[in-house]
Amino acid sequence: MEKQFRTPYGDRFFRLASDLLREARDASELAKAMTTYVDAADAEAGAGGEFQTACRSGCPHCCVLNVSVLLSEAVSIAVRLSEKRPADELARIVSRLDTHHRRVRWMENGERVRLRIGCPFLDARGDCTIHPYRPMACRGLTSLDPELCKAALDPFDPDAPGFIPMDIHRKIVMEDAYLAMAGAMAGRGMEPRCIELSAGVWTFLAAPHLCGLLLAGGRFPSSAWD
Fold first, then answer.
1. What is the dihedral of CA 115, 116, 117, 120, to 10 degrees?
2. What is the pTM of this model?
3. Deepest of 56, 69, 156, 224, by most Cβ within 10 A of its Cβ?
4. What pLDDT, in 10s, does the model give residues 74-113?
5. Partners of 143 in the beta sheet?
6. Domain ranges, ordered by start, for the chain
7. For the stretch 128-153, what's the b/e string if a residue is b when 16 or more beta carbons lie within 10 angstroms of its beta carbon?
């Protein structure tokens, strides 16, 4: 696992993730552990302060791309939604996530871009409704120019630019944080596979008991990836 890290922070992330997971005994504690972990990774990724990134809530240009999350991230997002949303709204979210996952599960990024299929967590204005607890993959995509993002993801422009300037330091740090958490999960006996964002969050909202199975190192149902 350590050989996969591309930053000097990888070993530290792995130790932190292992310590946090060791103390997590239920869904709420796992969500708190993930918040602590992602906050630490975010702080490390932004420590250089060399670039002013353009990515923020309300800029949805890249939110048509597939996002893969660890099951621990999906649990954390599901817990936060359950804490903050009334039952009727939560039921609508579960339904929307299920519909979205069934629609995109065989699609590649190019098709999602062409069809303009946005993330199910975007609201009508294009704001990310889970921005404070968004996945590590989203945090690592940090453009320096929103207009170039918009142009590059225009499915009707054959001359769209193929390059988007990004904060590469942040991208690499967040990727190492992701890998370190996956390694720590595997070390604890937890399923380390990633899952598409809408499918993962839907899984733990629709079947909260599966978090107990995840923490216990049980065999996770393969149907979650179908």
1. -170
2. 0.88
3. 69
4. 999 999 999 989 999 999 999 999 999 999 888 888 788 7
5. 166
6. 2-53+67-107+137-144+166-225
7. bbbeebbbbbbbbbbbeebebbbebb
